[in-house]
Amino acid sequence: MAKEKGRNVVLWTILECIPFLNMWMLAFFVGATNLKQENKLDKILDKLGAKE
């Protein structure tokens, strides 16, 4: 899931292995934005804004 969201896979794997912290981190990570998708949308909006 970290790779799909454009996050650091090693860091998130380590954080998810820590007991009790992993429940909070999982909830946070599920709600975290998808950085790859945001970057794509920003590029599209920049191109649309440049045409106006």
Describe this structure in words.
The protein is built from 3 helices and no strands. The chain is mainly alpha-helical. 0% of the residues are buried. The protein has one domain (9-51). The longest helix is centred in the last third of the chain and has 17 residues, at 35-51. 69% of the residues lie in helices and 0% in strands. The chain is elongated. It has helices at residues 9-16, 21-31, 35-51.
For the report, how would you describe the main beta sheet? none
Order of helices and strands: HHH
By oligomeric state, this entry counts as single chain
Record field, number of beta strands: 0
Present the secondary structure layout.
Elements: H1 9-16, H2 21-31, H3 35-51
Offer a few descriptive terms:
mainly alpha; 3 helices; 52 residues; elongated; single chain
Brief synopsis:
The chain is mostly helical and 52 residues long. 69% of the residues lie in helices and 0% in strands. The chain has 3 helices and no strands.
